[in-house]
Amino acid sequence: MSSHAVLEIQLSSLTHNYHFIKSKLHTQTKLLAVVKANGYGSESVSVAKKLEELDIDYLAVAYVVEGVKLRAAGIKTPILVLHPQLGDFKDIIHQCLEPSIYSLRSLEAFIKTAQDLNCEAYPIHLKTNTGLNRLGITERDFPSVFSSLKAQKAVSPKGLMSHLAASDDLLEREFTERQIKTFSNHIQLFEAELGPIPLKHLLNTSGILNFPQAQFNMARSGIGLYGYSNNPDIDKQLKPVATLKANVSQIHELQVGDWVGYNKGFVANKPMRIGTISLGHADGISRQYGQGKGVVSVGGGLAPIVGNVCMDMLMVELGDLQVQEGDMAVIFGEGAGQIASAEDFASGAKTISYELLTAISARVQRQIIE
User: Fold this and answer.
1) Is residue 36 flagged as an active site residue?
2) Catalytic residue among 30, 36, 127, 200
């Protein structure tokens, strides 16, 4: 391996997950794939190109710069920008992106930009707040939104959307069902005022799996396409797209009382073998790991992280594992007969796979495997 660490992106796993998610949808339901945050930490261009080959209906990014990158790479599929900033509205139009309009302020600003650029019926998605209270047009602003849209011809609602707050938590089923009912009511209100809106979408990955009755005519999937679902039983049917690997740079034989790493992060209480792995918090494995939080797969077994994670290295206790210097350790993903789930690795430090996956830094080499 030429780099200190590599993130392998297995596109066949992406294909498998795509077909799994599609199998949960009605034939007529469109699928939007979320490729924000560099494809959930993987590599957005390669992921988007593979999804385009699979005839994905829509892509979504968080910010305009991510959509611009995909357009520059030749992606032609419609791209929804989930959190556009007002200063980027001209770029949205120039790059043929579609904004999620989440407030009266953003609607009025986008209409003005579209008018300045002589647009007619430019497609937008209107996002309403159904209970997440993060982004979304509030019901008190609906009348003003209707008035603003009726008074112009520069933009046209192509989609109506909202976002579920707890679709992965079946203990909160009642709350989610209230959100679904609220969104259904919003559709009726908007279409009564503005006429038919072609696309309606609410469900995320967990929503697709747990609330399939609310598919409307498009659903969105992010984490599920990358191999995780917030449900251990479903995770067994998915395949991790990203596998993070790093070298065992050196092995130390410690005696009782020997330190490992900075500030007595770990002190040996018995003779032991410690392996230094070429990966640290500058690569995305933060200091919340270590001290026994997090394990890596190496030598046919699992080795716990000991001491404090350093900027460029972390240390693991090897025990009796058959490991030599230069061997490869798998941090998460698939490899060497072991599966180290990103969800399991993250849970050891009381976080989630989303944070772990998207934190892997740009200096970790991406290797695309067709």
Assistant:
1) yes
2) 36
